[in-house]
């Protein structure tokens, strides 16, 4: 095949000839009054140059044609060689040693090899998988391709790496316009179960699991044992957040970070300034103007739609479910380690109250429960000196300490930083309480008016005394959550909302088991339910924190939101 030096020489020759032609033409233009012999000499010189240029052009064309032919020939030969190599490998796989399985497909979660490290080769794609977890009927196979996993068909079990998030079905990912990230399918990667949408927002797939809650006072339960199952068993119940438009869904995407404003869109990005519902602090009105996006709580429903029609405000039951995931995970690790928790699997399992940390000590931009965790400042300081941080604004080493599952792949800042507006529970006139219907499509709650339309809700009688006082979760060893499995009951609804089962389950001091998290027991008309606490709430903030003290038109500098995406 001709080399590039020849091509460079041809190009140089053509450039030189072109320059000579230009010079001759310049001279020829000044010979209009010259004699006929002089003009004829220039014409002959131009014709000679033209002949040389045509010859060089033909050489160049021949060169390029030959080069292309050689390239095609090499490409064809390479393809034939690779095809033959693949065929040879397939024909000789039976003689390869060391493989426990040889199949023309990827492994599944129910292969159940006898040992971790079992090898599987897909004889069709030639990809090799190694079993990194041989839990019965929940095997995990890590593929040889970058970020590839052979089987994550069911959620990981509590106590295992990657638990608390999952892999969304490919057809769901594609239909919603999301993209995988590097490591999305690798449970050992910080991006496991994480996806990116068209705005660059990061979302986490939260798979459906059924929940069982029991009142057991022994350590590590201290009054609340949480168990999970990928299938519905006796004593287990479906979390309300997995019921939408009358259909039981297999999971949903949840913003990894609290919402921030970017070019008129509420996005989910790290190290960003969280949106608040007050003009003084990263206002929600920045998504447009105060007429279109007034600075009040119920604007969050419309704000979620700036990223797309299918985005919505998560149900309160989702936050309860995230708390349940974390508790079940910690408890299984405690059991497996005889009291010693593997912190690589649950980073916040090192100290009481054994729950995700959060920015709830704004005066120092740190966690009230762990002074080693500090946030970068978002630039806002309240009049009393307390400050707000950036979303996920901690060091990389501390990130797993502020996620719902204690791993970097989890949902960030579910406590502290900002109160979060939660859907699914509203109030009407005094004494009227409403819980979202199974038939309601959360995506239809697209603005403040629709979010408070009573036809989307069932009325229920709240047994809690709402006397406009602040209480705390826990009261000695008294049972706090009912564990009710009948989804039609008030007890189930209270569990889903994360509210105590009765007045006895709360107290004026609370229990460390529940982080002494606060419960603002107010009765309001058109109440807006908020969860988690903020950078100003110290010990009262936490994963159990719930507040009923504000209405839909309220505006506050430490109240924000995140969105979810339902298949």
Strand order in space, largest sheet: 26-25-27-29-28-21-30
* Low-pLDDT windows of residues: 24-39
Whole-number mean pLDDT: 88
- Structural class, by secondary structure, is alpha+beta
How many helices in DSSP terms? 7
Give the tally of β-strands.
31
Rounded radius of gyration (Å): 33 Å
Oligomeric grouping of the chains: single chain
Sheet with the most strands? Answer: 7 strands, mixed
What spatial form do the alpha-carbon principal axes imply?
globular
Content of β-strand: 15-25%
| Percent helix | 10-25%
Between the first and last Cα atoms, what is the distance in angstroms? 55 Å
Describe this structure as you would to a colleague.
- There is one protein chain.
- This protein is of the alpha+beta class and 567 residues long.
- It is 22% helix and 19% strand.
- It is built from seven helices and 31 strands.
- The chain has helices at residues 4-29, 36-91, 170-175, 299-304, 316-336, 448-451, 490-497, and strands at residues 101-103, 119-122, 128-133, 140-143, 149-151, 179-180, 194-196, 202-207, 210-214, 225-229, 243-244, 247-248, 251-255, 259-262, 265-268, 311-312, 359-361, 366-367, 377-381, 387-389, 419-421, 425-427, 433-436, 457-460, 469-473, 506-507, 518-521, 530-531, 546-547, 559-560, 564-565.
- The strands form nine sheets. Strands 26-25-27-29-28-21-30 form a seven-stranded mixed beta sheet, with no helix packed on it. Strands 6-7-8-13-31-16 form a six-stranded antiparallel beta sheet. The chain has a five-stranded mixed beta sheet with strand order 1-2-3-4-5, with no helix packed on it.
- Helix 1 runs antiparallel to helix 2.
- The longest helix has 56 residues, at 36-91.
- It is globular, with a radius of gyration of 33 Å.
């Amino acid at each position: 095949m001709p080399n590039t030096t020849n091509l460079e020489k041809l190009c140089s020759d053509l450039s030189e000839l072109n320059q000579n032609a230009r010079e001759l033409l310049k001279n020829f233009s000044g010979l209009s009054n010259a004699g006929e012999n002089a003009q004829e000499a220039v014409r002959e010189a131009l014709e000679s140059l033209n002949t040389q240029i045509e010859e060089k052009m033909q050489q160049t064309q021949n060169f390029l044609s030959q080069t292309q032919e050689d390239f095609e020939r090499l490409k064809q030969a390479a393809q034939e060689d690779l095809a033959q190599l693949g065929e040879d490998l397939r024909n000789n796989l039976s003689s390869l040693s060391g493989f426990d399985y040889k199949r023309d497909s990827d492994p599944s979660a129910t292969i159940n090899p006898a040992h971790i490290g079992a090898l599987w080769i897909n004889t069709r794609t030639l990809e090799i998988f190694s079993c990194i977890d041989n839990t019965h009927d929940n095997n995990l196979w890590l593929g040889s391709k970058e970020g590839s996993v052979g089987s994550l068909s069911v959620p990981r079990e509590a106590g295992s790496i990657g638990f608390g998030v999952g892999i969304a079905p490919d057809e769901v990912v594609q239909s919603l316009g999301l993209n995988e990230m590097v490591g999305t399918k690798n449970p050992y990667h910080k991006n496991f179960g994480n996806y990116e949408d068209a705005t660059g927002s990061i979302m986490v797939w939260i798979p459906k699991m059924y929940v069982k809650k029991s009142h057991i006072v022994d350590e590590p339960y201290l009054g609340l044992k949480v168990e999970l199952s990928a299938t519905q068993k006796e004593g287990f119940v479906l979390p309300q957040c997995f019921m939408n438009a009358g259909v039981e869904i297999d999971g949903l995407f949840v913003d990894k970070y609290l919402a921030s404003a970017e070019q008129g869109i509420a996005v989910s990005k790290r190290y960003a300034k969280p949106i608040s519902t007050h003009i003084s602090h990263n206002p929600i009105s920045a998504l447009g103007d105060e007429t279109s996006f007034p600075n009040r709580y119920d604007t969050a429903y419309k704000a979620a739609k700036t990223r797309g029609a299918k985005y919505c405000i998560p149900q309160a039951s989702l936050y309860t479910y995230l708390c349940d995931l974390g508790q079940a995970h910690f408890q299984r690790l405690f059991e497996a380690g005889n009291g010693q928790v593997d912190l690589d699997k649950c980073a916040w399992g090192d100290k009481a109250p054994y729950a995700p940390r959060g920015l709830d000590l704004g005066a120092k931009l740190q966690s009230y429960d762990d002074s080693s965790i500090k946030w970068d400042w978002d630039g806002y300081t309240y009049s009393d000196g307390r400050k707000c941080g950036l979303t996920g604004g901690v060091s990389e080493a501390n990130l797993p300490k502020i996620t719902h599952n204690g791993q970097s792949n989890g949902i960030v800042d579910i406590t502290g930083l900002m109160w979060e507006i939660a859907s699914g529970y509203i109030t009407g006139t005094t004494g009227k309480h409403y819980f979202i219907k199974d038939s309601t499509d959360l995506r239809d709650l697209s603005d403040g008016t629709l979010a408070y339309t009573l036809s989307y809700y069932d009325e229920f009688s709240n047994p809690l005394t709402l006397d406009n006082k602040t209480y705390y979760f826990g009261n000695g060893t008294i049972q706090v959550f009912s564990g009710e499995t009948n989804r039609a009951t008030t007890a189930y609804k209270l569990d889903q909302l994360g509210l105590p089962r009765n007045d006895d389950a709360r107290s004026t001091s609370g229990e460390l088991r529940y982080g002494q998290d606060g419960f603002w027991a107010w009765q309001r008309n058109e109440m807006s339910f908020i969860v988690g606490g903020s950078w100003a709430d110290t010990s009262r903030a936490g994963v159990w924190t719930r507040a009923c003290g504000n209405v839909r038109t309220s505006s506050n500098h430490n109240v924000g939101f995140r969105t979810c995406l339902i298949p």
